[in-house]
Amino acid sequence: DHSSEFIPKCRTCRRQAREQSGEGDHHEGLSSDEELTPTEVDEFQKSKDNLLEDSRKIFEDVHADFCDIRKILLKFQEWKEKFPDSYCDAYISFCLPKLLNPLIRAQLISWNPLEQNFTEMEEMPWFRAIEEFSDAENVSESK
């Protein structure tokens, strides 16, 4: 197999090229193919900032009752308590994931679990709201 001989030679060539050009910020174990240039980093940061800015505008014209997961789930909880047969016939437990998906995705746009100070998913408000709703559903079903 010649591929195993090729890889170390490429690494050696790239290392020698870095040493000759004076690039000293290479981290051993990382491929130079994976390293980003300062221009690429700037472009990525600009596109990330633009995306985050656009994401803040998604629900700006939506009434708070329809873009807040806790408020949406409270409406479904009221429906279930007042009209349990209708709630069951509508298969709401199957519909909720699809309904909440875009709201959750919008809240996760800026979430990065690789950052040092990231918020655990279980600590996010939408997660707690769904957890409380699920607990309330389990209690009412056991009755």
TrEMBL record:
Protein name, entry field: GCFC2 factor
Any GO BP annotation: mRNA splicing, via spliceosome
Record organism: Regulus satrapa
Family: Belongs to the GCF family.
Region (Disordered): 13-39
GO terms, molecular function: DNA binding
Cell compartments where the protein resides: Nucleus
Main localization of the protein described in the UniProt heading: nucleus
Domain GCF C-terminal: 70-132
Pfam families named among the record's database cross-references: GCFC
GO CC annotation: nucleus
